[in-house]
Write a structure and sequence with these properties.
Residues 1-26 form the signal peptide. Keywords: Signal. InterPro entries: Porin_dom_sf. This is Porin domain-containing protein. The chain is mostly beta strands. It has one domain (17-376): Porin, CATH 2.40.160.10. 2% of the residues lie in helices and 57% in strands. It is built from 1 helix and 19 strands. It has one helix at residues 30-35; strands at 38-52, 59-71, 78-92, 110-121, 124-134, 139-149, 155-166, 177-178, 185-195, 198-207, 211-221, 226-236, 245-256, 259-268, 299-309, 312-323, 328-340, 345-356, 366-376. The chain has an 18-stranded antiparallel β-barrel. A hairpin with an 8-residue loop joins strand 12 (226-236) and strand 13 (245-256).
């Protein structure tokens, strides 16, 4: 599941961020490394309003956020970064909508989201500490050690271990919590782009005494169309009450002038589905909510359109997920718009409409609006 508006999506692209095999700037002394460091951050206002159905009270809240980050210059290949986020409640419709209990959006009003030390040399980097990660099944902020090898032509090999993670953006803030108890999760992720217009991404994850899963994602990009073909399977420790599962994803997309379009199909197996794979993050579901996408025996069909006019980016996404032995349906519509008021100031809005067939469930019908204004520096 992904918030199309404002989850502060983390970018960890091959050969970028922690995978970089070269250092952008360097210093001669430790003092110079700090003096030549970079300060970045953002200031944002955010609000959301939910028109709930099925006897559930309407909900919503407002939030203000400030983010400040500092990254040193490189000193003999080493550099460090720290990032802090502070949040301010701007009201809520019902008690605990924003904060105050375990189901609230904000478990804290301040969080150190990043605090890492990185060493980089030609063809290799390693990062230890709190860091932003965006792999297929490992995302958000993690207390982790991640190494990236780019010495092999057209190939990025990522080896990592994460013990704790948190999700933090302008619309929510979790505390760091254990992954798989205190045993964490290991990952091997390989991206190979040696063939023209094609990238292969095989991967393996292992959460000791819980689950192992592996998959292959193939991405084809041409001048006229793009294709994503992705399949993953899980092998579950039988003592934890889950079943082995699998998920497949196929998407065809295209961009012509200022118009983009995509159609896709996602299917899970009838036994375990893919929910256990999403424990530390996910990237398959295209929806803002997508409650049922990873359930056992879930079949999702979706389509999206995007259009840019006068610098306004418009998007529409609609999908239907059929699931369960009675073929219940969850339908979701996402409409988005964003506008760069200036180079650094952006306004965005999302309208969501989720229609849920089943009534004996924690999920319910929901129509909602999310809006934000954010200045970055």
């Amino acid at each position: 599941m992904k918030n199309l508006l404002s989850r502060n999506k983390i970018s960890l692209i091959a050969c970028g961020f922690i995978f970089s095999s070269s250092v952008a700037f360097s210093a001669d002394t430790i003092d110079s490394a700090f003096k030549e460091g970079k300060v970045s951050g953002s200031v944002a206002l955010y609000g959301e309003k939910h028109d709930n159905k099925d006897g559930v009270k309407d909900s919503g809240f407002g939030n203000g956020q400030a983010t400040v980050a500092f990254e040193t210059a490189s000193f003999y290949g080493f550099n460090a970064k720290a990032e802090f986020k502070g949040n301010l409640g701007l009201g809520q419709i019902e008690k605990y909508d924003r904060s105050g209990d375990a189901d609230s959006a904000f478990a804290n009003n301040s969080l150190m989201t990043e605090a890492y030390l990185k060493y980089a040399m030609e063809g290799f980097s390693i990062t230890a500490g709190r860091q932003a990660i965006d792999l297929e099944w490992l995302a958000d902020y993690n207390e982790a050690v991640v190494a990236a090898i780019t010495a092999i032509p057209d190939t990025t090999v990522v080896l990592g271990y994460s013990q704790r993670k948190a999700e933090s953006g302008i619309d929510l803030s979790e505390d760091f919590h254990d992954i798989n108890g205190n045993k964490g999760v290991y990952v091997l992720d390989v991206k190979y782009a040696g063939l023209e217009s094609v990238e292969f991404n095989p991967y393996v994850y292992s959460a000791p005494d819980a689950v192992d899963f592996y998959g292959l994602k193939t991405t084809i990009t041409t001048d006229y169309f793009g294709l994503i073909a992705h399949y993953a399977e899980s092998s579950v420790d039988k003592n934890n009450g889950y079943e082995d599962g699998s998920i497949g994803h196929l998407e065809l997309n295209t961009t012509i002038a200022d118009i983009s379009a995509a159609v896709g199909y996602i299917k899970t197996d009838k036994d375990g589905g893919a929910a256990i794979m999403t424990t530390a993050g996910d990237n398959i579901s295209p929806f803002d909510t997508g409650n049922r996408t990873y359930d056992p025996d879930a079949r999702t069909v979706y389509g999206s359109l995007g259009y840019t006019i006068a610098d306004v980016e418009l998007g529409a996404l609609y999908g239907v997920t059929t699931y369960g032995i009675d073929d219940s349906k969850e339908k979701e519509l996402n409409l988005t718009a964003s506008y760069p008021i200036t180079e650094s100031l952006t306004a965005a809005i999302l309208y969501g409409d989720v229609n849920e067939d089943a009534t004996d469930t924690e999920w319910h019908d929901d129509k909602y609006v999310l809006a934000s204004v954010e200045y970055t520096f």
